[in-house]
Every structure is written in C-alpha cells, then in structure tokens.
Model the fold of this input.
Amino acid sequence: MTKLKSIEELKKIREEARKDLLTRVQTGTRIIIGMGTCGIAAGARDTMQAVLRELQAKNIEAHVETVGCVGMCAKEPLIDIEQAGKSRVRYGNVTADKVPRLIEEHLVRGRVVQEWAISRMEAQKT
Amino acid sequence: MTELSLHILDLVRNALEAGASRVEIVVDEDAATDTLRLEVKDNGRGMSQEEIDRVLDPFYTTRKTRHVGLGLPLLQEACQRCEGELSIRSRPGRGTTVQALFKRSHIDRAPLGDMPSVLLTILFSEKPVDWLYVHRIDGREFRLDTAEVRKETAEVPLTHPRVRQWLLEYLRKGEQDLGSTDIPLRAIA
Done:
C-alpha cells in the first residue's frame, strides 16, 4: 500500500464518515477506562481494545475515553460506565475476557453486573 | 510490563498529565550497534532539575490519587537489566524528553509489542493529543503524524470507527513493510 493510495482511501472514508456523522445519535453513554501505570500493567490496553471491538460488533454508540490513575490500583483494569440519567457504575478487575459479558449485560440488557461492580456514583442532577 | 510498547503508553500518559498536546515517539533499532532506543518527547510543562532528580524515586509523585510513581523507575530497571540506561531532559515550560536505551539482543529485553494498538489507545485520552510516530530499523523508516491525518479527516474525529480502522491497518502495514518482527510471544501462541 503506497502512502498516496492510503491518503486517497482516507479521503473516501472521510466522505462516507461525514454522512455517518449526521445520522449518528448522541446516546449519552460514556465508558471511561483507567490507563495509569497500574492499569497499563494490569492489561487496560487490551481491555480497551476489547471494548471497542464489542461496541462495533453490537453497533452500540458510546463515547470511550481513557484517564490516569484514580487510586484503586489493586482493582485495575477499571471501567466506569455512565449513562444519561443513571448512576455511574465502576467495575474492577475487568480483563479483556470479561468485556463481552459486561457490554451485553450493562449496555444491552441494562443490568449492572453486581459481582464485578465496586462502586456506584449517583447521576448528577442538571 | 510485558512489552516495551506499554512503557511507551505509560510515558505518553505522563506527558498528558503534564499538559502535553503533542508527543513525538521514536523507536530506533540498530543491528550494527546492537541497540534499541525509545524516545518520547512532549510539549508539556516540563520539570525543574530538582524534579528530574526525584522522578526516578518510586515514592515520589505529583499525583494526589496515590503516593507512588512507578512508571519511570520500572522503565529504568528494565533498561539497566538489559545493559542500557534511562535519561531525562527537561526544562520548565519547554517540555520533556525521555530516552530509554536497551541492548537489542539482550535475552531479558521485552519485545517491542503491539505499537499500533498503543498508538490508537493514545487517541482516546481525555485530553486531545497528536502524536508523531517514527520507527527506524537499520536506517529504514516508517512514520505517521496524526496532525497530517487530521488535516485529511477534517471534522471527522480520529476515533471514528472507520478512521480508526484505517489508522490500524496503515500502522500494521507500515510496521510489516519495515520488517518489524519484534512481536510479543502471546501474539505467536
């Protein structure tokens, strides 16, 4: 693949993605993954890749972002899931193999995976 | 850390914590000198000489969430174990450059690992950041700058699934064409 050909491909993707941007619905779902030294050492990069794969496979719209250490190093990899109007739930020790069940239970079926949840933060009132 | 790429991700996280908006990542492998050099340069707030002197102390951190800072000491230990060294250059307001040197053929040197997925992970940081990635092997070079990609994608974010897929394929092809065979053992299994 030459660089020129790739740039041409990128321009084509941009045009397709622009149309897609107009139809994408803002769902208000955020997935926050701890990516401090502790998270990285515990496998957070692979966890994040698994999250992206699952979202794409299930066609779920969500804003994914990484943050630094939140101070619960023994529970890494940590994932927070926040949905509009609902409590933010923090899950601990979420290795890549646990991600398919987490996404299915929490985002598709709307059920908190109690045995992996370590804290819950009430939704902010606006 | 099982891969050197994870150390790079950790160095970039430090850069983001220091307010960087751009990082330059260089991986330079040279068979003639039997060295592998990693370099991460950022445009963050930089450090004073006093901070540089303390940053390799595992019980020193500027963070409030926990009172240890293990990333740099772990990298220094990995370098020293492989007959290499870690060096840090920084000035307040002028950014920081961290360079890690390894004996390339050392049996204890971790593989470079999955750089494409590390580079994609960086794009999902809570603060927007651009990276320049340069990988050289014996004088041959592969490079990609997200600032240039952003010019092409315009309002479409780099984290958009289609753009992300393009980036991943471009990076994997670039590494493959360069002849990078330094992959982790778990990827072979």
Residues 4-188 of chain B form a domain with the Heat Shock Protein 90 fold (CATH 3.30.565.10). DSSP finds seven helices and six strands in chain B.
